[in-house]
Fold this protein.
Amino acid sequence: MSPRLLVVEDDDPIRTSLRWALEDEGYTVEEAVSGEEACALVDAAPPDVMLLDLMLGRMDGFGVVRHVRRRHDLPIIVVSARADTHDIVAALEAGADDYVTKPFHVKEITARLRALRRRSGPARPAADTGPDEVVLDRHPDAPLVLREARGTAHRGDEQLPLTVTEFRLLCELAAVPGRVLSRQDLLERVWQHGYFGDERIVDVHIRRLRTKVELDASAPRLVQTVRGLGYRLDPQ
């Protein structure tokens, strides 16, 4: 079946051009012109991915991201004329996976979508501790177990609500335990399509990942910052 994509955009010409281009790429495209309509469509039948404008009126794109993230883990790409770093960081902190600024070329959008679809699949094994799992933290009460082929990570009995991007970041860090990966390394490994925007997109997703995998995100033990170099994962 063709992947289902929801375009949330209140500008008719932009929305129509995106729909035509994405249908040519093989997507089944649905449209929404407001935040409220987008949330209703996602709750009724979550699409495979969502393209979302921020400036939508009464319920803006930030509200849509927060609503969707409380209920679903579908990939979200924000497409917005707001190019200020504060807006980009705020959208990513709310739970968006990627951010594209207007004006854009449709080929950039399709490249980001292809990268997101690749991220949704299994990556290479993170460690040789079993066919389908690696223990990243052997805490006696709440071990952290990554099952990459299944696309899940558990802290004790709880499955962690990782987004696609957070899961891929964890997999890439776990693939080389103890080794420092720079922001550019992570952009190339996780985003894969050659992201040329602000490298702080990595910092934002790392912060979100820590809130989910660390027992105390204010004093992280697993995902370590190496000042001036990047990040590494230190299994416990």
